[in-house]
Amino acid sequence: MTEHNIRHEIAHLARVELVTPDPDGTLWFFKELLGMYETSREAQSVYLRGYEDPYPWSLKVTEGPQPRLGHAALRASSPEALERRYRAIKDGNLDHQWLDGDHGYGKTLRFTSPDGHDLRLLWEAEKYQAPPELRSKILTRPSKKPLKGIPVKRIDHLNLLANDVTPVKESLERYLGFETRERVVEGDVEFGAWLSTNILGHEVAIMRDNLGAHGRLHHAAFFYGIQQHNIDAAEMFREYDITIEAGPDRHGITQGAFLYVFEPGGNRIELFGGPGSFNWNPTTRPEPGRCRTSTPASPSAAPNCRGRPTSPTAPRRSGLWPTRWRTPPNRRSLRRPPRPWPPPSPDLAARPARVRLRWQARPPGHTSGLASKGGCLT
Ligand SMILES: [Fe+2]
């Protein structure tokens, strides 16, 4: 198989594991507010799924000292595709190992991104079989829509932070066949890239980690598909003391209708109120210049991804956010030096619950420089 036709080797994002220091709060958030079903438990982990997730679980909540990404797993499009991707990862000298299955998923290839993210690849996945009381009368729906909170349908995408965006983006393109759909570039620095292997505008995004850390998560996103649900969810979150970071609104990049919140354990979660832009192009590799990019900061800088020279009068940061966000609403935060992460004294037990929620809800390590420039992200 040539590099030209590897795009469809990965079917989609199947699951994500989030580590939380507050498992009870995190489970309450996902089960009671977002209506996810609990399907199993083992040791310090609980397995959850949205009512339209196709497999036994799409979210694994694991207790741990800090909120962070445990791992994210992609499903290959065939056993042969998994084998081919394994060989590509092996030949590319990415750190990797085979793992046993996990609650409905078969053997899994674990590999590490150039920035240290724990990513996994698998083919074998059980189709979720709902018990009789949860069977939906809608034939394409794996289980009934629950009467709880404002339920999400399924996992949607993942946004990773990276000290250097480009190597992670290029590894996803080279070894897994991802296509870069949009980018944010300033000068010769790539601040963000949005990639997918299917019709969705993106399933994995990578954004520059301005703290210089490695292997961190920006957010995991779950799908509503209806923008009004984000507005209803915002009202619900206000009533139940869930910190809203941004939205409901629509992204300039990907056109996704978004709402960012922090679950009680401190992980940033996005509710996706629409599918955003689709990619109908059947070609198997990105054509040079097809991705959208911002205007470089300097007219003397490299041309944009269409290969055209940029206007010498182009204003700095033009294109980093929509017109109405050209002046970031939280510009003061741009001048604030980054605070250390993790916090210097994470003595959870000694803190009153409300104070604990406050710093967990706005962990400085979970805010990228781009997010602080107006939240115009995906
Ligand atoms: Fe997102």
Overview of the structural elements:
The protein is of the alpha+beta class and 378 residues long. The chain has one domain (3-373): 2,3-Dihydroxybiphenyl 1,2-Dioxygenase, domain 1, CATH 3.10.180.10. The chain has six helices and 16 strands. The protein has helices spanning 23-33, 79-91, 165-176, 227-239, 332-335, 353-361; strands spanning 10-20, 37-42, 45-49, 59-63, 68-76, 96-99, 108-112, 118-122, 154-162, 179-186, 189-196, 204-208, 216-223, 244-250, 257-262, 268-272. Strands 2-3-4-1-5-8-7-6 form an eight-stranded mixed β-sheet. An eight-stranded mixed β-sheet has the order 10-11-12-9-13-16-15-14. The chain binds fe (ii) ion (FE2).
Short note summarizing the structure:
By secondary structure, the chain is α+β, with helices and mostly antiparallel strands.
Helices and strands in order:
Elements: E1 10-20, H1 23-33, E2 37-42, E3 45-49, E4 59-63, E5 68-76, H2 79-91, E6 96-99, E7 108-112, E8 118-122, E9 154-162, H3 165-176, E10 179-186, E11 189-196, E12 204-208, E13 216-223, H4 227-239, E14 244-250, E15 257-262, E16 268-272, H5 332-335, H6 353-361
Parallel strand pairs: 1-4, 5-8, 9-12, 13-16
Antiparallel strand pairs: 1-5, 2-3, 3-4, 6-7, 7-8, 9-13, 10-11, 11-12, 14-15, 15-16
The structure holds fe (ii) ion.
The site of fe (ii) ion has 7 residues, from strand 9 and strand 13.
Low-confidence stretches: 286-290, 295-378
Give me the count of strands.
Answer: 16
Strand order in the sheet with the most strands: 2-3-4-1-5-8-7-6
Computed Rg? 20 Å
> Structural class, judged by helices and strands?
alpha+beta
CATH hierarchy, class: Alpha Beta
Main sheet record: 8 strands, mixed
Shape: globular
Beta content = 25-35%
Number of domains: 1
CATH topology: 2,3-Dihydroxybiphenyl 1,2-Dioxygenase, domain 1
The share of residues in helices is: 10-25%
The hetero molecules present are:
fe (ii) ion
Euclidean distance between termini CA atoms: 33 Å
CATH architecture: Roll
Tally of contiguous helical segments: 6
- Order of secondary-structure elements: EHEEEEHEEEEHEEEEHEEEHH
CATH homology superfamily name: 2,3-Dihydroxybiphenyl 1,2-Dioxygenase, domain 1
